[in-house]
Design goal:
The chain is an alpha+beta fold. It folds into three domains: about 70 residues, no CATH class; about 210 residues, Exo-inulinase, domain 1 (Jelly Rolls, Sandwich), CATH 2.60.120.560; about 120 residues, OmpA-like domain (60s Ribosomal Protein L30, Chain: A, 2-Layer Sandwich), CATH 3.30.1330.60. It is built from six helices and 20 strands. The strands form three sheets. Strands 1, 3, 4, 6, 12, 13, 14 and 16 form an eight-stranded antiparallel β-sheet that branches. Strands 2, 5, 7, 8, 9, 10, 11 and 15 form an eight-stranded antiparallel β-sheet that branches. A hairpin with an 8-residue loop joins strand 3 and strand 4.
């Protein structure tokens, strides 16, 4: 009896097992179209989903790798100067534009190659500078004069503050009262990417009979001025001089440096007695041996936008006036030290700006001619910011100068040592833009 009961009791178990096997086979053959009857079917679907998700992730990673290969390589720190980033649309009148979001794409630092013919070297002592730090956003700068209208703004993606020239007329920094025989003037000029104004910006050195009447600059006995007129692919420039009451015939040229692409243009003017050179970025646009009268006593710097201008959005920043003829060889060989304000860096960075090429080339020439000369390169900062951070920054900047002299000019690294003093050794006051600019310097000290 017991045996019979045991045999009968196993039959339902066998049937259930057979049914489970049959359902499994059906699920494999017909997939999700058959409703699952056991946990195995849920597991099959989960596995399929996981496989699909893994394939999607793999495809996404592959796509990102292919896109990354198309991007330029990351910039090596302090190896070369950073090109000025493209200017975004300037801030609306009287407003502070929000900072541009940081780029997620690494941009390679440009080579100094395009500046190989750039020979501009700024004057030895900065006598005037403007950063508009003392002025409120939306105001016209307190130390300037105009018969038109302008205001201080910020531009997204660009450091510092800018003077926006909002109407036609003259604009003059009243603190610039002497432009002697040996003088350099530098500033940055920006326009919107879609700039299409019908009138250029004019920049003039003027000998005013009455400093209270800058509007008379065009009829002054002595002046010279050049224009900057950005356009889509390349812009244009004109140069005109007036000497001892007589206007000379002007001339004109075109330059790709004034392409209206939204990037700021660094403009540098170098007067050496009668000779005047004008640079726009790395290009020497003008070099006139008799641009100024021998007896000219320029006492005003005037920016001018002709009347009737419609969409004339010109922006100015970074004005610096320096005097004195650079005498690098004599300073370093005879006096044992050369101090320069011509090696410029990005804000709070050790990346050298490309307009520093002329100064670096000047020092490299002395080192090349005097093969036994060894120097210590010493960086200095102004007093803005933290003491420790400034000390570190000054050391990194000195190291960047050494790196550039070695890589770009093939100077033996063993002849160059570096150091940094931060803000600890000022040579001027730190309570005004010109004083701070003088304290931000690089010194070459003979060993």
């Amino acid at each position: 009896m017991g045996t019979q009961l045991s045999q009968h009791s196993t039959r339902p178990i066998r049937r259930r097992a057979s049914l489970a096997i049959l359902l499994t086979v059906i699920a494999v053959l017909y997939g999700p179209s058959v409703a699952p009857a056991a946990g195995q079917f849920g597991a099959i679907r989960d596995a399929a989903r996981r496989a699909a998700e893994e394939k999607r992730k793999a495809d996404e990673e592959k796509r990102k790798e292919e896109e990354a290969k198309k991007q330029p390589p990351a910039a090596a720190p302090a190896a070369a100067p950073a090109e000025a980033p493209a200017a975004a649309q300037p801030a609306a009148a009287g407003s502070t534009a929000p900072p541009a979001p940081p780029s997620t794409t690494a941009v390679a630092a440009p080579s100094f190659a395009s500046y190989s013919k750039f020979d501009f070297v700024p004057g030895e002592k900065i006598v005037a500078a403007e950063d508009f730090a003392q002025d409120a956003i939306g105001d016209f700068p307190a130390k300037w004069n105009t018969n038109a209208s302008g205001e201080i703004v910020t531009i997204a993606g660009q450091p510092g503050r800018w003077l926006k020239l909002t109407r036609a007329g003259f604009f003059t920094p009243e603190f610039v009262t002497d432009l002697p025989d040996n003088v350099t003037v530098e500033f940055d000029l920006a326009t919107p990417p879609d700039f299409s104004a019908g009138f250029p910006l004019e920049t003039a050195f003027v000998q005013l009979a009455d400093l209270k009447k800058p509007e008379d600059w065009q009829t002054a006995s002595n002046n010279f001025f050049f224009t900057a007129h950005p356009s889509s692919s390349q812009g244009s420039s004109q140069m005109t001089t007036r000497q001892d009451g007589t206007s000379a015939a002007g001339n004109s040229t075109t330059t790709a440096q004034l392409a209206a692409n939204g990037k700021p243009v660094h403009i540098a003017i170098w007067r050496q007695r009668q000779r005047v050179r004008v640079y726009m970025n790395q290009e020497k646009v003008w070099d006139l041996p008799r641009a100024a009268a021998a007896a000219a006593k320029f006492n005003a710097l005037v920016f001018f936008v002709p009347g009737g201008c419609g969409n004339c959005e010109y922006y100015l920043a970074g004005l610096r006036v320096a005097t004195g003829a650079p005498d690098t060889r004599n300073k370093i060989i005879t006096e044992g030290k050369w101090v320069t304000h011509g090696i410029l860096f990005d804000v709070n960075s050790d990346r050298i700006k490309p307009e520093s090429y002329g100064t670096l080339k000047e020092m490299a020439g002395v080192l090349t001619e005097s093969s036994d000369l060894k120097v210590v390169i010493v960086g200095h900062t102004d007093s803005d910011g933290d003491d420790a951070a400034n000390m570190d920054l000054s050391k990194r900047r000195a190291a960047a100068v050494k790196s550039t002299l070695v890589s770009e000019f093939k100077i033996d690294a063993g002849r160059l040592e570096t150091d940094g003093k931060g803000e600890s050794q000022p040579i001027d006051k730190n309570d005004n833009p010109a004083g701070k600019a003088n304290n931000r310097r690089v010194e070459f000290i003979k060993k």
